[in-house]
Amino acid sequence: MNHEPRTMNYLIPFFTIIPLGAAFLISLFGKRIKGLPDFLANLGSFSLLALSLYSIFLVIGGRTLVYKVGGWAPPFGICMVLDALSTFMLVTVNLVSFLVTVYCINYMEKYSDKYKFYTLFMLMLAGMNGIIITGDLFNLFVFLEIASISSYALVAFGTEAEELEASFKYAVMGSVASSFILLGIALLYSYTSTLNMADISGVLAEKQPATLVNFIAVLFLAGFGLKAALVPFHAWLPDAHPSAPAPISAMLSGVLIKVLGVYALMRIFFNLLGVNNTILSLFLFLGAISMLVGVFLAIGQWDFKRLLAYHSVSQIGYVILGIGLGTPLGVLGGLFHLFNHSLFKSLLFLNSGAVDYSLGTRDLQKMGGLREKMPVTAATNLIASMSIAGVPPFNGFWSKLIIILACLQVNRFGYAICAVLASILTLASFMKVQKYAFLGKFSEKLKTIKEVPLAMKLSMVILAIICIFAGALLLPLFKGFLDSAVNVLLLNNYKEAVFQAAI
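Above: the chain's sequence. Below: its structure in token form.
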């Protein structure tokens, strides 16, 4: 184990310090100084992105960094852990967050109290980053609550009746999920007498399999499954995502359900509890059901954002399917699709926000011919639609192809067929969006509309460019970034890596 970047351990807490500091300053001075909330939010999210990209070099070669809070070594003290999987998630979250904050400069002008929005946004970002880097279960729960409560408030930010109702439903379901998770953590603590995640994995490896651990696994699956919006835990999502402001929809679908749901599931089941064939089969089943149910429900929607929300359920199914295979190729496909989905789904929600910003409607039947008046939005939406449908050479094609090949590799032909079918239906669904929103006859009622402001266009264009070129992550030069994250899950040496790094 190489301990060369020892001094770099002190960078780890900054993933939470920066957004918490930004939230504090924005709430304190944001109302008095015009333009300060925009500046601080963008500076904070850009700093986090730069720090995430730098951390790739710190974990190259399978290194693990541990920051000991207060100097207390694990398992006695609280620790923060940076390994290849954490870095992969941090890059995904902070890349999307930065582009969304750029988009917000213009988009959030139509809302009063913009500084309150940015305060909540930064708190949500602090919660997500905290979940990714925490090394103990109780702090995982604390950061989960910070991110969740901020997101409940952000869904209701417009304070219309629809938004308040959706936020209430989201808060109730989220609280149920949190209760499951907290009960699971309490039972696990009573069984292992420790909250340190590396220590828990060591204790469980030595003990005989127990019925209590299986019960804890079910609680975690239900709790984090709700956060990830897997079928049958998805009921809150189609209301919450359309109601929120477009940048928040992009964050919820793009990264929040990945961090609070998928990442937590992966980390706890692969690195703590250990996976067996029963758990993996359950992941496969939930993934396949989510893929198909999500896309069937999406295809009949006319509300642009509601259609996208159901596709989030479907695409999360692909990620869980890949991870549920439990093979190096399957987990690679699952993680790569998680990254790709963060990009194209965020872009699609930003597109829907641009259309809503210019037209004041989300109803596809009231649109038509927008390509003439909104060429940038139309072009970026076409790229994102092709990406989510898995059309080559866009990024979604490569990750879906890997997942399908991984299914065939282990003779899971039924799941491979489900993945192909869901992809075809996704293409059909987005052809509908193209036909009714951007192509077709231009309506005379819409002749006064114009393209969105510069900051919104800039975000959409950058995301579209990344969607085109993200497939390059599979090239040998960059593939180590993904392979290292896969190894963290499959090598099952989490305890050794953390304790060695903490010496």
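Residues 390 and 400 are 7 Å apart (CA to CA).
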